Amino acid sequence: MLLAVLCLVVMLSFLVITTAGMSKQHADMQIARMGMTRARQLAEEGIAVAVHPVLRAGDPLLRRNVSDIESYEAQLTTEERRLNLNALLTPDRLPLLERIFQSWGMTLSDSQDISASLMDWIDPDDLKRRPGSAERMDYEFAGKTGLPLNRPFSSLDEAEMVARMNEVRALKPDWRNWFTLRGSGQLDINTAPAEIIAAATGASLENAMMLVQTRNGLDGIAFTQDDAPFKSIEAAVSMLGMTGPGSAGALPLLTLQGPTRHIECIGRFGDSRCGIGLVLTQVGGRPRIAEWSEFAVKGPGQP
């Protein structure tokens, strides 16, 4: 009888401990969910402030501490900080795409073949531009019917479907950070990273890094109040070391301020973080949301 009572006590203790553990886990999940919801609200609040056309990068209004555990920080840049992939797929600009691939370590022949395959994807015919590029018969032979789509890319996911793009991904896993499908097709010399500037213009990476350091101002931090953006393309090209007649080819590609605004805002509630990205285009003189996305942000202590 005593043994039965002891077994019952042990079983009840186990059930109580298990239930308490499950309740705590459920409570923790609820707290985390509430924290993420509040972080998202703060990020949306920051976006609502940042879309005002008067605000510029580094404006104090882009950062706000609501309380000790609540805040948001928004960053203004342009979508022209990256290269418009569709805009590069023209006979005049295709050598630029080939140069970018080569800067990642690709051979000349492979860069030409893959660039031509990208062109074959968007052109209306089924004729191969190069023996090493891919058209409809090549995709059908590989068991991929209905490809290529013979229209401009509508997403970078589509670009992943192009023949041999796996080789690009292997060489440059973050290749998507270099390209966009929005924007004017020019490269914003005042917001683009040094690596993209160097590859796109043919300048040395050292000169491109010096250009970025100069435009970031005395504190060396981008998108702050002491930034010193370039006022003329000629001055930027000169700092890149592209003087003389050879620099003329880079001028049409570059712009001092891209017209397509890109806003990112991170909301914080305790250890919870939520990031929102927004691309704004101008339609009839009025801003229009062209793209809205959320991205993960690691909090303190998170792997």
Helix/strand/pairing category = alpha/beta
Shape: globular
Provide the residue-averaged pLDDT: 88
**Portion of residues within helices:** 25-40%
Summarize the structure in words.
With 303 residues, the chain is α/β, with parallel strands linked by helices. The chain folds into three domains: 33-84 and 258-303, no CATH class; 105-171, no CATH class; 187-255, no CATH class. The protein has ten helices and nine strands. It has helices at 2-50, 85-88, 94-103, 108-122, 136-141, 156-159, 165-171, 194-201, 205-215, 233-239, and strands at residues 63-65, 70-78, 83-84, 179-180, 187-188, 254-255, 261-269, 272-283, 286-295. It has a five-stranded antiparallel sheet with strand order 1-2-7-8-9. A hairpin with a 2-residue loop joins strand 8 (272-283) and strand 9. The radius of gyration is 26 Å and the shape is globular. The mean pLDDT is 88.
Indicate the topology.
Elements: H1 2-50, E1 63-65, E2 70-78, E3 83-84, H2 85-88, H3 94-103, H4 108-122, H5 136-141, H6 156-159, H7 165-171, E4 179-180, E5 187-188, H8 194-201, H9 205-215, H10 233-239, E6 254-255, E7 261-269, E8 272-283, E9 286-295
Parallel strand pairs: 3-4, 5-6
Antiparallel strand pairs: 1-2, 2-7, 7-8, 8-9
Brief write-up:
With 303 residues, the chain is of the alpha/beta class.
Q: Tags for this entry?
A:
303 residues; alpha/beta; 3 domains; 5-stranded antiparallel beta sheet; two-stranded parallel sheet; 10 helices; 9 strands; 17% strand
